[in-house]
Amino acid sequence: MEVVQEGPFKVVGLKVVARWEELWREMPRAWEEFIARHGAVVHRLEPAFVDVSLGKSGDLYVQVVGSRVHAFEDVPPGMVALEIPAQRYVRYRHAGPVEGIALSFGRMYAWAKDNGLEADEFKLDVGYTAGGAEQEHELFVRVKP
Hints:
The protein has helices at 20-37, 101-114, and strands spanning 2-6, 9-19, 49-57, 60-69, 80-84, 87-95, 119-128, 136-143. By secondary structure, it is α+β, with helices and mostly antiparallel strands.
C-alpha cells in the first residue's frame, strides 16, 4: 500500500443510489446494464471499467459504474458525467477474485489509520472488464487533507 496523488479525471456511467442492504442487488444490475451499453460511451480511455463510491447521502449509498473518458461529449441517455478532482489516495493492487475486494478495502482503511491518515468514504475500484474474468483491480481510498 502507498499514498499517491492522482490527477483529475472524467467518468461516464450509470448512477446507483441505494440503501446498504439493497446494494447487493442494485450493483450487479447496474454493471450488467453498463457492460451491455458501454459501447455507446465515446472517448473511453481504457478497456477497464471503474466503480466510483461517492459516499453516503443520509442512509443511501451513491455510486457510479462506468468508464474513464477524456471528454463528456455525447453522454448516452440515462448515464451521468462525473468529474473527479485531483486528490490523494491510499492505493492498493488487489489480486484475486472480486469477492475479496471488500476485505482489501478494509485493510486499506486500517493501513491508513495505522499510518496517521484519515480516509473517507470516497473510493475507486478500477479493473472490471466486460468479460468479468479480471484478476487484478487498482483500489483507491481518498485521504483527507
